[in-house]
């Protein structure tokens, strides 16, 4: 079976571009929304996941669902520090006992208050979290009311600029540094000395919520975990930091993905209708051409293939257009609320090649659905009658 | 009217195309309804906020508590008519995924400040008598299949252990936007079973004032009263509190507006194109109508009528489907407090459909109107 | 009697004086009709012939109020139509003219009945009255048993008959036919021409027909030729 040359389809689309444009735009719009929602979900997830390092383990009380409802008292800290696999700087174990609280600060954008996540950490925190660096100023000194602020937090909240003083919890804190954690969740946080923070929030001293340990290697996690969880003195759970953050992000990521997919699907149905409309009218307008092709000797299969190919061409163009239209949002920072901690989290839309591929695939799927029924109709046009019209 | 058969016949010319265009309208308006419901879910807190209610939280942080003795001092502030308090429990029922808000409430005063929740008197009495009793919203009950008298175990990661409650009452709302996913239990039980450091502390206060216009004065008065203490307060109207939550969730409105615009723009294109094609195909027929004696204005009208019929029927279909979909409740299985379509939105959607119907039909209608018979017939 | 001169004394049903029609194509001016004069009495059957592009259809369009002349006047039943507004012209057309085209031009989405009913929807007749008129018209053309058929279910000849029924249903002052048999086979063409004869003879209709077909022209009482933009009489057949 010889196929109708594709150039016929290209020329047809060009000749009827006003009609094709409608289908193209419909598909482009759907793909753009689809990719944007996926990018939002991925971006949110990535922000949280990149907070974790594969070589870090986070230890919380057994049964805790997040950091905030966990308790790790001082007494349990020593066994954690001494567990096998913990990296050391000299003889000092790289473990950061942490406390997470929420503070209210006005958003620069709206002036209304938003909850900012304040993390009390060990003064060694930067050694534990190697991917976080100080890009302006310095890290806080132990025991002082000093804070370092993530670079997104500086942009998001009023009053956190480098050098400013800000009162909360009965103390006045000075912003002594700005952190860059590579776009992860920590960029939306404010860090302070855990002991000083405990005091300010009137929490009993020496009670932390979690301990993050830097391990000598990824592989060391298994033994580290086993040792701690089987120790009768402790009631803890240990897991890879990456895994922990993946879990934390799941709820919102799933919500965004769920709602986004629903919206994209509904739009997709509409886009398919638009494509069908375009293709059906194409078939109607070209009934004579099709009859001629048939008379010349092209078979039914060739005709079907040709129209399907044309529908795919249009939807591919639509998919490309949609992807191009949505690309600019890549890296665009927005923010939302992390429901588990009630705090504001800034994240960036993340458009990856994989997402774009999904977008184009979605477009082609719509094109297929929108192209097959009209193609079948084209193939079924009675040749003789159509020729008589000539 | 006597020309209706002509309009309908024209629409029936290419049945599949008419169906597809109807479908496009239906899809667009369905999406409109969906987006309205989603937006409503996010704004729910603002929509139901009592005009005469204020909320007080710890100034330092939402998660910090406030002392119980504050209650009497708040009551003494002029303009305050009722005060209640609650604490966030944050427990897990069976699985972390089954999230719903749980509050330890002051059962004597809670309903004074939240009169909008309807509870049968006998159920409420049973709750008051049972210190392990709990009250659940109608949606919550439906979601988990609870019945009055059920024992409900909830694990507390914050305070440890598994807490058991007896379902004594179910509350319903009076408005479509009311949040029916809450779970309340007795403050006394909370103090009894909870850790010692929680004694004498509450999560937040909610109060009612006699005159909503007084809100600013009372707000200032309260925060003034507790300024420079160990537990400083931050008072806001319920609406402001809810609004700040929504604002933190990001620019949901903008996102929805964007999606909505893309959808309607595309719809306009699709239907406009359909109408244009439909008119182009019928040039000779329209010319014949004019030759027979139908005026230019009539031809304009008939094309518009076709377009409007499609939009009205398709729009009604889409909105009807959306209403049915929202009647099925929250599609996310509990993460949204409400999910419904108010009648005002239905009307707005209908108006939008009409507008698109007119907009998409206007250009083809005008070109049909301007069609010159002699040119058209010569084409044949 | 059909008269071609300008100075004709008695005025007929349809009177055209000094008709000019020109088109501008690009930078050229094309004079399709020049100084054309015509008088047609009531009840006459006139055929217009001439080579392609000679302006036959243009003349028909002008007489039918579908177009306006560049110069000159047209008076029908005492009404001067050349200076009527577009809206008035449309109303006039509805009442006075019945069109029969070469390509039937029925609305494919309507049944034969509804197609014929179309001109009546512009009047104030009640539904029952309309029905009566439509049935009568269909009976005249012999298709009353095909009322509920759609155009796609009818043959070429039948389609043209429905078109004729539509043209006469509102009892117009005169009928204009543009190549009515052009698309038909011989037998059907004959039937149509017979029908037109009936309309003229038995119902006293005035018929103006443009045609290529000499057999069609034969049926008319007078055949006029269009040459160089004006009319020339050919052999007149005795009435």
Description:
The complex is a heterotrimer of chains A (390), B (380) and C (239). Chain A is α+β, with helices and mostly antiparallel strands and 390 residues long. In chain A, 50% of the residues lie in helices and 22% in strands. In chain A, a hairpin with a 4-residue loop joins strand 15 and strand 16. Chain A has twelve helices and 16 strands. In chain A, helix 1 crosses helix 2 and helix 2 runs antiparallel to helix 8. Chain B is of the alpha+beta class. Chain B has a nine-stranded mixed beta sheet with strand order 6-7-5-8-4-3-10-1-11. The two termini of chain B are 32 Å apart. The relative contact order of chain B is 0.19. Chain C is an alpha/beta fold and 239 residues long. The longest helix of chain C has 16 residues. Chain C is globular. The mean pLDDT of chain C is 86. At the A-B interface, helix 2, strand 5, strand 6, helix 8 and strand 15 of A face helix 2, helix 10 and helix 11 of B.
Distinctive features:
heterotrimer; A: 390 residues; alpha+beta; 2 domains; two-stranded antiparallel sheet; 16 strands; 22% strand; B: 380 residues; nine-stranded mixed sheet; 15 helices; 53% helix
Short description:
The complex is a heterotrimer of chains A (390), B (380) and C (239). With 390 residues, chain A is of the alpha+beta class. Chain A is 50% helix and 22% strand.
Helix content range of the residues of chain B, please?
40-55%
H/E topology pattern of chain C: EEEHEEHEHHHEHEHEE
Strand-pairing-aware structural class of chain C: alpha/beta
Straight-line distance between termini of chain C: 9 Å
Assembly type of the chains comes to heterotrimer
Q: What portion of residues of chain B belong to β-strands? A: 15-25%
Specify the helix fraction band of chain C. 25-40%
* Low-pLDDT residue spans of chain C: none
Note the overall shape of chain C.
globular
Radius of gyration of chain B: 29 Å
For the sheet with most strands of chain C, the description reads: 6 strands, mixed
What is the H/E string of chain B? HHHEEHEEHHEHEEEHEEHEHHHHHH
The number of E-state strands of chain B comes to 11
The domain tally of chain B reads: 2
Mean pLDDT of chain B: 86
Spatial order of strands in the largest sheet of chain C: 6-7-8-3-9-10
